[in-house]
Design a protein that fits this description.
The complex is a heterotrimer of chains A (about 260), B (about 425) and C (about 325).
Chain A: E1 2-7, E2 9-11, E3 33-35, H1 37-53, E4 56-62, H2 68-78, E5 82-87, H3 96-110, E6 114-118, H4 129-137, E7 141-151, E8 154-160, E9 166-172, E10 175-179, H5 191-200, E11 203-207, E12 218-223, E13 232-233, H6 238-251
Parallel strand pairs in A: 1-4, 1-6, 4-5, 5-11, 6-10, 7-10
Antiparallel strand pairs in A: 2-3, 7-8, 8-9
Helix pairs in contact in A: 2-5, 3-4
Chain B: E1 11-12, E2 18-19, E3 22-23, E4 31-32, H1 43-49, H2 80-88, H3 107-111, H4 118-131, H5 137-149, H6 174-177, E5 181-186, H7 189-193, H8 195-211, E6 215-217, H9 227-231, H10 235-249, E7 254-259, H11 262-271, E8 281-283, H12 284-290, H13 292-298, E9 306-309, H14 323-330, E10 336-338, H15 360-366, H16 371-381, E11 386-389, H17 394-404, E12 411-414, H18 415-424
Parallel strand pairs in B: 5-6, 5-7, 7-8, 9-10, 9-11, 11-12
Antiparallel strand pairs in B: 1-4, 2-3
Helix pairs in contact in B: 8-18, 12-14, 16-17
Chain C: E1 5-8, E2 11-12, E3 15-16, H1 18-34, E4 38-44, H2 48-51, E5 58-63, H3 72-86, E6 90-94, H4 99-110, E7 114-124, E8 127-134, E9 139-145, E10 150-154, E11 170-173, E12 184-190, E13 204-208, H5 215-228, E14 231-234, H6 236-240, E15 261-265, H7 271-274, E16 283-286, E17 300-302, H8 306-316
Parallel strand pairs in C: 1-4, 1-6, 4-5, 5-11, 6-10, 7-10, 13-14, 13-15, 15-16, 16-17
Antiparallel strand pairs in C: 2-3, 7-8, 8-9
Helix pairs in contact in C: 3-4, 5-8
The chains are: A alpha/beta (about 260), B alpha/beta (about 425), C alpha/beta (about 325).
């Protein structure tokens, strides 16, 4: 079983997101990048499949901001067997279409049985990478997956819908799946282990295709959303806030 | 460990025995049959002693000096002697819950004739367990949060200096200051984020301001010191944080570093020097005790309180500082200092060291009582109104423990808070 | 290219989902501005009556037993074929479990641009302008395209469903591609497990987010819920982490709730969560981040440590 996991770094939302001077996008020099949390689940699911059904996991991503090494070392520490970074002269805000085309070019040569990636990322303005990979690779795709097992050339997945309804879907391998949540929460890789691996492991490099395709979308403006309404803010310390909440509930007959 | 294994089961005893005219019948001639030592396996002990730092585990000769001083043994069955015996009789420490109960308080080391050093053995053994994936969930979360956010509380890095806005006095941040300072104040994670830790930080800022100290803090450039994560087995995380912090410390001109917490003191005194950082360092109690002639004049309000003081393991036993905190408490007018039975060199551990801070529920499941609970009962028994502390791990631990043990009347205050109250005459 | 709008209807468990009507309502408005027609495409089995309830100009309905439930490859291929046949100016899908499978795939396969996370869309001087919620709702991005055909995925709940309801008779169509031998197969539907409480019928919910930190935080929230006569609900990260069962999850991949009280502890208010609770009668949010988007939705808010407020509430109750 040859499993490939496509990883993407995105601006960290733990911090304030700064805008550039033109207000046309984020100020990428000022943001921290982190691994897309859904990709963390995709990696976990890949390692779970490997542990159950055997095979090898290759983690790869586009090294947008020359900071992918740590992500890949972490992937190796968590159980990936091989890591590849796609290198080139990139814009930190490269869109999904561009990244998907670069990733697909490398993945095709790996002849995978199973390609996993996060179902979405918080900055997928032009769509999600998973279905794009499937389109490039001519493979079937199923997304919003919360569990995946492989047996006899078929991936059996749980696909989530609204209201907690889950469909069982079978997909012929090879295929691409967009992971919403791995069957188990992503494991922790001790930094000790990551640092050991960083000293010995090799990260393979692949050149990005010369120019990515144009997504055909122009981002005109980015801003914090205009508040449609604003909550009445309860001032004071925790005790005072609690007292006000109790007043509100009492007034509405909710206590 | 099976308690039965600890006892000798065959006893030889002659009912009647008279030797040289002396009657030594019955228990007077009791002998114990030889122990069956070939039942014991050296492999599990060697797994530990072969680790760098784990060597001294093998030196234990079972004298049991550690048993009466081990704080965990007082709420369970623990201590180096028992651990050695357990491993000798087949317990694999790497996968045993016992691996996580030691707080590295070093009271056993103080009395150990063989210098069996749990402060070295525990991190070495735990590191192996961490690498193999045997980590209690709570602790793993603290590791993850520290790795992700730079602090074990999982709070955003950019908000590390947010507390300073409430101080009412200017808290200079090095990056904004644009000049060198006399004192670099390393605030620490709990004093930056934990609400009760922040109370102490605010007090410190007001005291420094009143004393006219030329100081600065590192704001959101500061990250957790990582020492407790190291002692809990995550060496790599410690190294990553140390590299970051050492880089930041080197960016600015300063003469002496003052730390809020004893664990930070230990990190910067004993561990960071191995990585190239070795600069003048003081715990805040040492720094303020040195300022006492000036500070004394500021302590204008009487605090008629009976106060007992809890020696932090990593300030007292680990670094021999017992007097500075007491000197500060005694400088407060009206305050009466009473000592608990276990104090100074034999101070009882709060349970927060060596990663215990992030193993609270885990430890509680393997002991009859939390160490912090045992300690507040001792504090309450001393007749004190206030339990004074000077380690940021302790305030929240002891406050919870006071509530849990029905000692809600016992207030837990950092020495900084007491000084601030005496200085400003409010909050009391 | 035409100026028509192709709307992909979707259904779950035999019922056409509200998002379908929401899209049609908005498409009517846009079609008027573009001078085109609204074409709904519904793929189902025995859904003729429901599919006849759109306010569209045309409703194409493909009936096949294989389409009784969603099948990823069937949807992809049928939609691609009809997009080729109709050359619509705009293809609308939901930002849903179905739309997320199809839109980006279709974009690469057919060379049309794609815009996701759309919560507003309009025609300005013949250009289609969209607004998307990015970064978990923390940013709003305005995009435009001059391409002559565009695919968008719309956030559920962004537009009114009623505007899309009507009585346009269905126009049955034959499968434009063979539906046999597909490489994806539906094999069963699992409903949320019974046995746990049903949060959709509760009057009062205490909802916890990632901010509760772990099982201890959940235990505190549970204690608070009990004191309030409420039940604990959660956002996705909490159920993903296993701190609460999936049956307690509110939002996009969870349940939709409309309680009288929705007290939120440590939930920032990502659009995926808002989708499931925005119609609650009273929303009170406690979050330490003053910029959390939830404060734009909640009726009352406080920037406080959730544990302190929870403990203070427990003490006061």
């Amino acid at each position: 079983m040859n499993i490939v996991v496509a990883l993407k770094q995105i601006p960290s939302m733990a911090d304030e997101l700064p805008l550039n001077a033109q207000g046309s996008n984020l100020d990428f020099d000022e943001v921290d990048f982190v691994l897309n949390e859904f990709d963390e689940h995709a990696l976990e699911q890949a390692v779970l499949v490997k542990e159950k059904s055997g095979g090898a996991v290759t983690a790869l991503g586009v090294d947008l901001i020359e900071a992918l090494d740590d992500v890949l070392y972490t992937a190796l520490a968590k159980g990936a067997d091989k890591a590849i970074k796609i290198v080139g002269d990139f814009e930190p805000g490269a869109d999904s279409h561009t990244q998907a085309a670069w990733l697909a070019a490398v993945i095709r040569d790996l002849s995978p049985d199973l390609v996993l990636t996060g179902v979405q990322a918080a900055n997928d303005l032009d769509g999600q990478i998973g279905p794009m990979l499937a389109a490039h690779l001519d493979l079937p795709y199923v997304g919003v997956v919360t569990g995946l097992e492989v047996a006899q050339g078929v991936a059996k997945v749980h696909k989530e819908f609204a209201g907690g309804v889950v469909a069982d879907i079978e997909v012929d391998l090879p295929c691409v799946a967009g992971i919403q949540a791995a069957a188990k929460p992503p494991r922790y890789a001790p930094i000790s282990k990551i640092r050991q691996i960083a000293k010995t492991a090799q990260i393979a490099e692949a050149e990005a295709a010369a120019a990515g395709p144009d997504a055909g979308v122009t981002l005109r403006r980015m801003a914090k959303p205009v508040a449609t309404g604003r909550a009445d803010m309860l001032a004071g310390d925790a005790k005072q806030v609690a007292a006000k909440i109790i007043d509100i509930l009492t007034e509405r007959g909710l206590l | 460990m099976d308690a039965g294994l600890d006892k000798v089961d065959r006893i030889l005893e002659k009912e009647t025995a008279i030797i040289d005219g002396m009657d030594i019948s019955g228990s007077w001639n009791r002998m114990f049959e030889q122990r069956v030592i070939w039942d014991y396996t050296p492999e599990l002990i060697e797994k530990i002693t072969h680790l760098p730092g784990g060597e001294s585990f093998g030196w234990c000769y079972q004298c049991a000096s550690c048993t009466p001083v081990c704080p965990v043994d007082m709420v369970g069955s623990y201590g180096p002697r028992r651990l050695f015996r357990a491993v000798q009789t087949g317990v694999d420490l790497f996968t045993s819950a016992d691996l996580w109960l030691c707080t590295t308080c070093a009271n056993c080391l103080r009395v150990c004739k063989k210098e069996v050093d749990m402060v070295q053995i525990m991190p070495a053994t735990r590191e192996k367990a961490v690498l193999d994936g045997f980590v209690p969930e709570e602790l793993q979360k603290a590791f993850e949060d520290t790795a992700k956010y730079g602090n074990p509380l999982g709070q955003p890095q950019r908000k590390r200096a947010a507390w300073a806005k409430q101080a009412g006095v200017d808290v200079p941040i090095m990056k904004e200051l644009g000049r060198g300072v006399d004192i670099l104040w390393y605030v620490g994670s709990y004093p930056s984020y934990h609400p009760r830790g922040i109370d102490a930080s605010l007090a410190a800022a007001r005291i420094f301001h009143a004393l006219g100290v030329d100081y600065g803090i590192l704001g959101n450039e500061e990250k957790d010191d990582g020492d407790s994560q190291r002692l809990a087995g995550e060496t790599g995380l410690f190294e990553m944080l140390a590299e970051h912090n050492i880089g930041v410390f080197a960016q600015y001109e300063w003469n002496t570093m003052v730390v809020t917490g004893p664990h930070e003191y230990n990190a910067f005194k004993t561990q960071y020097p191995k990585m190239g950082f070795d600069r003048p360092l003081m715990h805040y109690t040492q720094f303020l005790a040195g300022q006492l002639p000036k500070l004394q004049d500021l302590l204008t309000h009487s605090l008629p309180l009976r106060v007992t003081f809890h020696d932090p393991c990593y300030l007292g036993r680990h670094h021999g500082e017992y007097d500075a905190p007491r000197a500060l408490l005694q400088a407060i007018p009206g305050l009466e200092l009473v000592e608990m039975g276990r104090c100074r060199e034999n101070g009882y551990c709060c349970g927060g060291g060596g990663g215990g801070m992030w193993l609270d529920s885990f430890t509680a499941n393997h002991t009859s009582m939390r160490l912090s609970e045992k300690r507040v009962m001792e504090a309450a028994a001393s007749g004190a109104d206030v339990l004074a502390v000077c380690c940021p791990f302790e305030v929240s631990r002891f406050e919870d423990a006071a509530k849990n043990t029905g000692n809600g009347h016992l207030r837990v205050l950092d020495i900084l808070e007491l000084l601030d109250m005496s200085m400003r005459g409010n909050g009391y | 290219m035409s100026n028509d709008i192709l709307v992909i209807a979707e259904h779950l468990d035999g019922r056409i989902a509200d998002i379908s009507f929401e899209m049609v309502g908005k498409a009517r408005e846009l079609a008027a501005a573009l001078g085109g027609q609204v074409i709904v495409l519904a793929l189902g089995s025995g859904l003729q009556a429901q599919a006849g309830g759109f306010a569209s100009h045309t409703t194409l309905y493909l009936d096949d037993p294989l389409l009784a439930h969603y099948n990823p490859q069937a949807y992809q291929q049928v939609i691609a074929a009809l997009a080729a046949a109709h050359s619509p100016r705009l293809i609308m899908l939901g930002y849903t479990s179905i739309g997320m499978d199809v839109a980006a795939w279709l974009s690469v396969k057919t060379g049309r641009p794609c815009i996701a996370y759309v919560n507003d869309i309009a025609v300005e001087q013949d250009a289609i302008v969209t607004r998307s919620q990015l970064y978990g709702g923390k940013m709003s991005a305005e995009s435009a395209t001059r391409a002559d055909s565009l695919i968008v995925t719309l956030m559920a709940g962004a537009f009114a469903a009623d505007a899309g309801r009507g009585a346009t008779p269905i126009q049955p169509i034959a499968a434009p591609v063979p539906l046999a031998g597909l490489r994806t197969r539906f094999t069963g539907l699992l409903k949320p497990e019974a046995g746990d409480v049903d949060i959709t019928t509760q009057e009062k919910l205490v909802a916890v987010g990632r901010g509760v930190g772990g099982e201890d935080g959940v235990a505190l929230a549970t204690e608070l819920a009990e004191a309030l006569g409420a039940v604990v609900a959660a956002s996705r990260p909490v159920t993903d982490a296993g701190w609460l069962p999936k049956t307690r999850q509110v939002g996009k991949s969870g349940l939709t709730v409309r309680p009288k009280l929705y007290l939120m502890l440590g939930i920032s208010g990502a659009p995926e969560h808002l989708e499931g609770m925005k119609d609650a009668e009273l929303i009170i949010a406690i979050n330490s981040d003053e910029n959390a988007p939830i404060f734009n939705v909640a009726h009352y808010g406080a920037t406080q440590d959730l544990f302190e407020v929870a403990e203070a509430l427990l003490e006061a109750l």
